[in-house]
């Protein structure tokens, strides 16, 4: 079941759901708006020009209030909001239609697991022929929350738990198992 604004406000007030730095106008009828933060990461060029999933990927981190996303460019960004989901709640990351109509795609996996704590890393892609200026504090998307039928047996405690800022892929850790 998708949660309403009334339920979200109740959960925020009793701290069973935590979303930091939240302004009241970010609470929508069935979602909470998320804003873009001020850290961005781009993949560093590799000598071979190939990304190997078994090796750690190197990123260049940029802290800026504005970032110009060039046509065809991909960048990681972060949300301003830090979220903490209880073990019986999940969230979907959805882009804003207004930004999608400009060619800005939020290529996020789209799923926040029950038990996750951290800032949400967004994968942004500019499909337009023009550059798009990204400004910290601007609404970039929304979180839609759904209640699980009961608490998860294995809530999220993975490699991105507690992340702050745009966080690069840690898929290389999967190959070490």
Automatic annotation (TrEMBL):
Key word Nucleotide-binding present in the record?
yes
- One example of a Gene Ontology biological process annotation: dUMP biosynthetic process
Q: Which UniProt keywords apply?
A: Hydrolase, Nucleotide metabolism, Nucleotide-binding
Q: In which pathway does it act?
A: Pyrimidine metabolism; dUMP biosynthesis; dUMP from dCTP: step 1/1
Residues at the catalytic site: 123
Q: One MF term from GO for this chain?
A: nucleotide binding
Which reaction is the catalytic activity of this chain?
A: dCTP + 2 H2O = dUMP + NH4(+) + diphosphate
Q: Where does dCTP bind?
A: 96-101, 113, 121-123, 142, 156, 159, 163
Q: EC number(s) for this protein?
A: 3.5.4.30
Q: Which CDD domains match?
A: trimeric_dUTPase (cd07557)
- One short Pfam family name for this protein? DCD
Site Important for bifunctional activity — annotated at 110-111
Q: Does the keyword Ribosomal protein apply?
A: no
Broadest EC class assigned to this enzyme: hydrolase
What this protein is reported to do is described as:
Bifunctional enzyme that catalyzes both the deamination of dCTP to dUTP and the hydrolysis of dUTP to dUMP without releasing the toxic dUTP intermediate.
Q: Which family does it belong to?
A: Belongs to the dCTP deaminase family.
Tell me the subunit arrangement.
Answer: Homotrimer.
Protein name stated in the entry: dCTP deaminase, dUMP-forming
- Gene that encodes the chain: dcd
């Amino acid at each position: 079941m998708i949660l309403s604004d009334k339920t979200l406000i109740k959960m925020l007030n009793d701290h069973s759901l935590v979303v930091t730095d939240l302004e009241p106008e970010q609470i929508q009828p069935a979602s909470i708006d998320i804003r873009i933060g001020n850290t961005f990461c781009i993949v560093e060029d590799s000598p071979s020009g190939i990304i190997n999933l078994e090796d750690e990927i190197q990123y260049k981190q940029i802290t800026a209030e504005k970032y110009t996303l060039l046509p065809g460019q991909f960048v990681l960004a972060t949300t301003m909001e830090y979220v903490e989901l209880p073990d019986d709640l999940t969230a979907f990351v959805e882009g804003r239609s207004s930004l999608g109509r400009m060619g800005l795609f939020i290529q996020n996996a789209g799923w926040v697991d029950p038990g996750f704590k951290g800032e949400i890393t967004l994968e942004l892609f500019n499909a337009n022929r023009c550059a798009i200026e990204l400004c910290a504090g601007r609404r970039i998307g929304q979180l839609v929350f759904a209640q699980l039928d009961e608490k998860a047996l294995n809530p999220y405690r993975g490699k991105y738990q507690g992340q702050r800022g745009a966080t690069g892929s840690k898929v290389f850790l999967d190959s070490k198992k």
